What does this fold into?
Amino acid sequence: IRLEPERIRPGSTAQLQVDITNTANSDIKDITTELKLDGTAFVTIGEASEKKIRQLAPNAKATIIYNIIVNPDAELKVHRILMPITYYDSLGVKFTSNNTIGIPVYSKPEYNIDMENTNIYTNGRAGEITISIANKGNSDIKFLNIELLENETYNIISNPKVYIGNLESDDFETATYKLYSRASKPIRLEFKIAYKDAYNNDFLNYAEVNMPIYSKWTAQNLGLVERNLAWLYIIISLIALIFIYKTYKIWKYERDLEKSIAVFFKNIVKFAREKILKIKK
It folds into this structure.
């Protein structure tokens, strides 16, 4: 028995070839093979599940070919199919051979890994990033482990390894890490992803996820980082202190608050005019 391809993807077709050899010393006749496909994930394509060979001479061989298709939602495992074979010897005696064929349905795991969330937008900042991994294939992903690898653009503060476990088809999970950014341009996060497929085959892949990093000015304009207005408050406070101090000194002589304020601003205008004239000269 041969299957081409050796493993069938859900929703795809395959060719099942059955070689029958007469090992007796006399002819065998009316050989009938039948694939018992009722209740299975398979159907034949454009042909019956029962086929016949009229006669086989001693040591002769014949090949029966079935073209089959597997259901798109077939379970990923080795499916057992019954295939009884009946035939008659030269004396007309009927014989039956009950056979079981194993057809493996397989699909390699497929996934997407993307940035889900981050609060690190600028260089020199510590925070958390969350990545999501989605199983976009037919195969379940088993014993999934994701490890964040460190490089010169960031430091890992938390545990770099996150164990996800099993991830079913069309499902997703997230993993969170704490980082310190050391780059002023977008960072490439490097991950090592280890898992098993439905047949317990081991897989080890590497993937990259881009993490945007902005200048402080751009991050503030985008509303990602709050503006630091401490310097502005300091300047305003200094101006207020100077105003109060100068006005108080004038008030000590004038004893009139409104006149003292007017004199202060007059002095400011005079000082500014002298500086402008000096620059022009």
User: Anything to note?
Assistant: The longest strand covers residues 78-88. The radius of gyration is 40 Å. The mean pLDDT is 87. The CA atoms of residues 185 and 213 lie 5 Å apart.
